[in-house]
Amino acid sequence: AASDVYKRQVKQAISSLPERCRVIFQMAKEDEMNHREIAEALNVKLCTVERQLLLAKAKIKESIKPFLEKF
C-alpha cells in the first residue's frame, strides 16, 4: 500500500542523515527527549540540537517530496 511505501521512504531518509543529525533526530522523535535533554546527553549546545533538527526535517522533507508529488 502507499502508506507502506511512504513509511519505507521516511525510514530510508532518516537512515541517510549524517550520523549526528540522525542521532539527534531519533532522540527527539523516538526517545521523545526535549531539546535541552538531548543537548545535555550529548554535551552539545542547545542551538546545535535545534540546528540539527531543522536540518534533519529539511532533508527528510526533500527525500519524501517526490513520493508526495505522486499522490
Quick structural gist:
The protein is 82% helix and 0% strand. The chain has 71 residues and is an all-alpha fold.
Summary tags:
71 residues; 0% strand; mainly alpha; 4 helices
The gyration radius over C-alpha positions equals 13 Å
Protein structure class? mainly alpha
Q: Runs with pLDDT <50, length 5+? A: none
Strand residue percentage: under 5%
Quaternary structure classification:
single chain
Secondary-structure element order, N to C: HHHH
How is the main sheet built? none
Distance between the termini: 12 Å
Calculate the mean pLDDT score and round it.
93
Helical coverage, percent range: over 70%
Summed up, the helix count is: 4
Please report the total strand number as a whole number: 0
Shape: elongated
What report would you give on this structure?
The structure is a single chain. With 71 residues, the protein is an all-alpha fold. Helices cover 82% and strands 0% of the residues. The protein has four helices and no strands. Helix 1 packs antiparallel against helix 4, helix 2 packs across helix 4 and helix 3 (35-42) crosses helix 4 (46-70). It is elongated, with a radius of gyration of 13 Å.
Q: What is the secondary structure topology, with strand pairs?
A:
Elements: H1 2-15, H2 19-29, H3 35-42, H4 46-70
